[in-house]
Amino acid sequence: MKRILILNGSPRKNGKTASLIKAFTEGAETSGNEVRNLYISEMDIKGCIACEACSQNGGNCIQKDDMIQVNEAVEWAEVIVFASPMYWGIITGQLKIVIDRLYAECNKLGWKGFNKETALIMTARGDYYQQSLDFYSIFTDMMKWKNWGTVLGAGKEKEAYAIGASIN
Ligand SMILES: Cc1cc2nc3c(=O)[nH]c(=O)nc-3n(C[C@H](O)[C@H](O)[C@H](O)COP(=O)(O)O)c2cc1C
């Protein structure tokens, strides 16, 4: 049983990404995992300003916004799932901002201490996911996070359910 945090980067609460998230959550919960969902679009999270304060002060971001809630959930979670529609080849700006801001958590927990597992859920109108996968690997390889799998494409609820259920 794992604690799973899903970061939903879609602005559409009942959209195609949300449908995959629902299936993934059902699968994960069936296997006894605990799932928390954060709907980033509703949160007030500003972009990283590269002040590097967090690298000098033990990882405390000077921007006091809703990223505090994300960080608390990230610290709670053992698995972090990135879920997003594709916008211009990669994840949405909303989710990218959250990932940028995780830089402070890297400084707080240390690059080795920030040890999570992960999965990726994405939807798009087309089927070109390579750029998104490259971005995902740049981040998760650097962090050395175990990848439970990627669900790429609207309508793949069964796949999403199966990956969620495989987590233990
Ligand atoms: C600003 C914007 C950019 C998009 N860029 C792409 C793209 O580069 N490639 C693609 O296949 N679909 C693109 N789409 C389509 C969405 O990825 C697709 O409709 C997605 O499934 C929507 O997910 P949602 O229902 O969770 O909002 C774009 C949509 C928007 C609004």
Radius of gyration: 15 Å
Please provide the ordered H/E string of secondary-structure elements.
EHEHHEHHEHEH
Main beta-sheet strand count, sense and barrel state: 5 strands, parallel
Number of strands: 5
What is the total domain count? 1
The largest beta-sheet arranges its strands as 2-1-3-4-5
Our estimate of the beta-strand percent is 15-25%
> Which ligands appear in the coordinates?
flavin mononucleotide
Looking at the overall shape, the CATH architecture is 3-Layer(aba) Sandwich
The low-confidence parts are: none
Mean pLDDT, rounded to whole units?
97
Distance between the termini: 5 Å
What do we call the CATH homologous superfamily? Flavodoxin domain
Helix content: 40-55%
Would you give an account of this structure?
The protein has 168 residues and is of the alpha/beta class. The protein has one domain: Flavodoxin domain (Rossmann fold). α1 packs parallel to α7. The model has no long low-confidence stretch (mean pLDDT 97). The site of flavin mononucleotide (FMN) has 16 residues, from α1.
